[in-house]
Amino acid sequence: MAILTENECRTLLKKVLSYSKADECQVSIYSSDSANVRFARNNVSTSGFISSSSMAISSAFGKKLGVITLNDYSDESIQKAVKRSEELAQFAPENPEYMPMLGPQTYPASGETYVDATAAITPAQRSKMVEDSLNIAKQNKLTAAGFLQDSAASSAMMNSKGLFVFNKGTNVNFSATMRTADAQGSGYVTKDYNDISKVDIKAFSAIAAKKAAGSLGAKAIEPGKYTVILEPAAGIVLLEQLYGSLDARSADEGRSFLSLPGGKTRLGEKMVDERVNIYSDPTNPDLPATTYDGEGMPLGKMSLIEKGVVKNLSYSRYWAQKKGVKPVPGAANIIMEGGTQSLEDLIKGTEKGILVTRLWYIRPVDPQTLLYTGLTRDGTFYIENGQIKFPIKNMRFNESPVIMLNNLDALGKTERTVSGESSQSALIPPMRIRDFTFSSLSDAV
Amino acid sequence: MGISASMLSQFTAVGSPIVPGTRMRDVDVAIKKRMSDVALNAARAKGATYTDVRLGRYLNEYVVTRDKNIENLVSTESYGMGIRVIANGCWGFAATDRLDNDSIARAAETAVAIAKENSRLQTEQVQLAPQKGYGEVTWKTPIERNAFEVPMKEKTDLLLSVNDAAFKNGANYVNSVLFMVNEQKYFASTDGSYIDQDIHRIWPVFGVTKIDDKTGKFETRSSLSAPRGMGYEYMMPRESDKIKCQTTLYRDRYDMLEDAGAAALQAAEKLKAKTVEPGKYDLVLDPSHLWLTIHESVGHPSELDRVLGYEANFAGTSFLTLDKWKTGKFNFGSKNVNIVADKLQPGSLGAVGYDDEGVGTKQWDIIKDGILVNYQAIRDQAHIIGLKESQGCCYSQSWRDVQFQRMPNISLQPGKEKLSPADMIKNVEKGIYIIGDSSFSIDQQRYNFQFSGQLYYEIKNGKIVGMLNDVAYQANTQEFWNACTAVCDKDDYRLGGSFFDGKGQPMQASAVSHGSSTARFNGVNVINTARKI
């Protein structure tokens, strides 16, 4: 099954709108082909192929909205669906926060989100990639578990006010955990790209294998405050709690870490170290992104934190109108500026500290301070005098990304990584942080 | 992994919004059988040695409010077929939402092709525990009132009244949601089963926020409801289902209005509560809190797929290794700790007639008098722990996803001797009584955990002396369960749970209940979570 092309989407959506009698009508469509192979115990465990598509029709009369979705695109089915969405709109309660649909928009060109070679991956290719990873495990007398998933998808939106936008994208995601035969050592790697040609399964798997072997014989150290180097896959899971919470409404309402007494917020305030710059740019070749959001708002380059100052909070169209400001859509993607040092350079420059491969089971503890808890996992090492000295047992932390970025010591080179918690990608540098708070030891390997 | 942090995103992942009342009509069972046979025959023709088909229609409805407005009325429907095969001793899976005969046959062939392609990498062939075919059978959640048939106005009026009740008691903000689920699942396999099931679940939740304008501090108190395998009758309060203590707690009927009113007062009280002094405390844990600790520290480590390493890359493995189980003496907890796995309990989220690989459901012991005695296993794992049949706990969140081992209800059995929470508290010298669930985190082998709650009450010399704040407790699983010194009797037994237990890659959500009575744990480490930014 192939995903829908731009022309197929345009023709189909035009047909839907031709049946509309509502004040406003908007239609969006999404189609995807996705395949995956999961492996464990050096065997393939499950694998599959999923093809699906769906269309959502939104009809509005005044501030009353009705939404219906369908995946049968026959004339009869579409006509019925349009009619039903209009009936629902007439039936629905008026929503005081409803905003009129957007007219035609000018969208910045997005990056190269779609790569033909990724969309053309075959079952035999997938099988070969998994085989390469399993071979690395077997050569190193390790047990591998992992996941390989690739997908191609297209989406389009059109409305009765003349808005139309289309995009398509591909993605391939690989992660592997290698464990020693005695289950006392474990190493991890995760990578995510639009372009399959950037995926080097053997090299990625070798990283996990090296960490697994190196983590054997872990020693316990006393929990407390330590300098840590967070590899990008570790740092992203804490950073995403910060950049994912830059919302104006909750801040204005007084129920966010960005809120201040008296209805004020931290927008425009220096909140973290001045070396912290976080922004979005959908044209970045290393993390191309679509240039529209779910309402059809254009997404371009935008600063979120600049020199440690909170530069932009997202304002929904309703909240922006209420506050008399311009709407600010959410970020198209996330890029955190880094420095020039490699991970190895950061290690060399560390007198005493801990190298963290992965952070796990991240959960909020206190929204007032953005305090989160979680644990290290799959490769945690003690550094002394610029060298990795020995593996250490995993530990639980209780830390706020705001406090963490105030304790920034050094930044390495930015690279693409993917969150093991949210599955979202970002460009994140390795970070060296002072006084990171570990509160207890874990026996987990 | 554990309970998903992003509930709504999990929920929407399963389907797409449609108009309430416009769902497809029930598909006739004869048509379902015919469609399933197309898949079974196509897979067999391509060389599959086993095939199962799940033709699913998954309906969700949720009513979402924000303060005084209905923010969203969403109904989702997802309809399609998942086909799982064994070919050359390897699993293959394909799913499609195009349900003409050609598309079904093509999906079945794709599943076989995938299995054959990957079989060359196999060193362990899939070994299925035998399962007799049941023929054509049905099962339905015993509900009194179908939530999907309750007029939308009744549901929206209820939630708006709930929000009003909180505002009347001083809340600044209120969000409330009513989740309703109906899984209409048809299962067919080459074993000769054709199983038609109609499964219902419901979950009302809210969050009430109170802000101190002067200090800028804010506190939220969330609902003390439980998700249930019930119909709309759960929303009809009944005095006999209420337990009165520092707040009102609920058994099999929920009074959402009453709870929201109490929540507003308690959120304000939390703003003024004393910050906890870190140290060792005896914890008295209410079932509205303890369910999540049971889920994370007993439910997940006793999943056999984790023990065997199938989840090593994501959810993790387990400290409950096979060698510990084989001794027959592994001391998981104190003698007060009896944990039962269950897929039958009426009103629970896990209750079904048959699991998603066509196995009739049952109940079995996991921890008996503190000793690890069993795991949770499905058909391709049963032989590993010497079972002759599956334990019937295989599940998939939708037709699109492949089924795998998921947690049945895992519950702490009540104490045999008469004991109420009030009597339990009378014997505590220095302790904290915790009600409701909040923050939760545990390591990938389930040793080290940290939990928080909604309401914390300080116990001094057998009496509750006031509310505490900034509380979290940390423990090692085995030490914690061995510190369980008492469990209240059956009169206090209640179910908690979640719709959003996450596991697998791609991650799937599963609904599961956990029952318990209030239990006491001695000498647990409590930390203070207050910070300044």
UniProtKB/TrEMBL annotation, chain A:
Pfam families the record matches: PmbA_TldD_1st, PmbA_TldD_3rd
GO biological process, one term: proteolysis
Residue ranges occupied by any Metalloprotease TldD/E N-terminal domain in the UniProt entry: 26-89
Highest taxon of the lineage: Bacteria
GO MF term list: metallopeptidase activity
Coiled coil (UniProt feature): none
Xref: InterPro entries: Metalloprtase-TldD/E_C, Metalloprtase-TldD/E_N, TldD/PmbA_N, TldD/PmbA_sf
Every Metalloprotease TldD/E C-terminal domain range: 223-439
PANTHER family, alphabetized: CONSERVED PROTEIN, TLDD PROTEIN
Protein family membership: Belongs to the peptidase U62 family.
Protein name: TldD/PmbA family protein
Native species: Mucilaginibacter terrigena
